[in-house]
Structure prediction request, 586 residues.
Amino acid sequence: MTSPDELRELARRCRVHIVNMVHRAQAGHPGGSLSEIDLLVALYKTTLRVRPSDPRWEDRDRFILSKGHASPGMYAILAEMGFISEEDLTSYRVLGGICQGHVDMKWCPGVDFSAGSLGMGLSFGLGAAIAGRLEESERQVYVMLGDGELQEGSVWEAAMAAAHHELGNLNVILDRNRIQNDDFCEAQMRMFDIPAKWKAFGWNVKEIDGHNMEEIVDGMQFLSTTNSGPSILIAHTVKGHGVSFMADNPAFHGAAPNDEQYALAMQELGEVGA
Amino acid sequence: MTKMAATRDGYGEALLELANNPKVVVLEADLGKSTKSLHFRKAHPERTVSCGIGEQNMLLIGAGLAASGYIPFASTFAIFTERAFEQMRNGVARPNLAVHVCGSHGGTHTGTDGSSAQSIEDLAIYRTLPNVIVMNPSDVVSTKQLTIQLADKASPSYMRTARNKTPVLYEGRENEIEIGKGIVLKEGSDVAIIACGVMVSEALKAAESLQAEGIQASVVDMHTLKPLDGPLIDNLVLTCGALVTAEDHNVIGGLGGAVAEHLTANTYAPLERVGVKDRFGESGQSDEMLEVMEISAPFIAAAAKRAIARKA
Ligand SMILES: Cc1ncc(C[n+]2csc(CCOP(=O)(O)OP(=O)(O)O)c2C)c(N)n1
Ligand SMILES: [Mg+2]
Prediction:
């Protein structure tokens, strides 16, 4: 089992990949990639049953990045896991590249769902979870949602259906970074008591600090072992975490750093002499 | 140097001008910075309704406002208006409520976000709805004028704007712009190129290259796909005898479809349709996308020659 310190170092490397990708492309979504990455690193390294050499292995656990714009985070961990190469990361948003702007199952190995339109991933995950049950497989389905994404009504259709169908193999990881596209969630559409909402919909709920690796590992354990109905891990995160000027800043939801900001970010991420 | 601007900015400017009318309200779905309704929001927060990331809700909030005497302008990316298509059909078009929907970032021209963000079917689907005005303006000036004119219309509308900059075509020519009337930008008698949106400037480039080969092409900016300017098309058939349509949209059901429908019902001329060949896009820069999709100026010029060759 990978230690929390090893996971932290891996997450640091992934953050470097993320900033590199959006800087090179001069486009893309750093904020939600940096907030989700500690979660993705722990999920892939400690919990997800996948085979990088056989990405289409039928009995693999499924991971669905429903907030598909946060693709740099997913590409980073896919590269560190060996699904794709580090060289592939340079193809982010480049014509013909496997790292499309939004994660796409037709383009990139290791991607289970073509996302980019918010509010679709949980329903897809439901289908995958029902399939797993029909096949009497132990496999689990994990869906990463954004907090702004929760405003799509379709998320709640899926949430209701998951509890109705008692899908214990269906799990959500919520990246609760408090920011969406234009502004803070609180300004765009107040969310009130998110844990209470999921509980009322019949879900098992656990809350963690989404940047505390020990808590994250615990949280993943909670998801994979709680199988009496669907479960959600609400991870309190900071959008843009790890880069000072991106942290908690709505401006870096979908904007790339300039050269000066890039150099500063690399320094902060411990890439000396960058 | 040609002046460049994005049509979405024309939408934003128009909303600010329309703010004089106290009945005008603006609806957003967490993309106001992108569609450019943010300027209205800043100036008139009390008349701006944040709908969160909830496009279906937004369209019907608009319907409720319209039925109560307001003039709602709702915007999101073109692709995400499509999530609310049935709301548009049953809740807006059917009762003929004047909700004005603006879909920004339309077409493959929107670029590196990739296929999930590149709406290539919006014009087709909205065209199938009774009562709905469908537009895809080509430049920032006409976008502003057409948006302003919408406020006086008693029917709902869908207008596509573009994320990226295109040449400004109508500076000082504001009074030539009218919903439902195509604009002849260049006159020639060998072939007529009818284009909309970002493809209008591509059509002009194609006409220039054809001219160098001695072929005289008319170029028409058909910013309104519905109601279609039938008399103008009939006239182009008479003067040119061969037509080309050009759109950053699936060849099925958009401008090419509209012109083909008109021709089969009214008159005859060979027609070549330039558009996305019934496939999805991918990540790439705007100019790269027009090449990959085979819809840029050289492809329009080639289509013009094919259309001419088909003349009886
Ligand atoms: C259906 C839909 N509407 C609008 C968008 C445009 N959009 C892309 S990201 C985003 C904000 C997402 O916020 P959140 O879910 O909180 O993601 P995160 O903060 O993790 O980046 C929006 C509105 C979209 N991708 N899909
Ligand atoms: Mg968020």
Remarks:
- The longest strand of chain B covers residues 243-250.
- The pocket of magnesium ion (ligand 2) is lined by residues A 32, 146-148, 177, 179-180 (CB under 6 Å).
- Chain B touches chain A at residues 28, 30-34, 38, 50-54, 56-57, 79-80, 83, 112-117, 282-285, 288, 292 (CB under 8 Å).
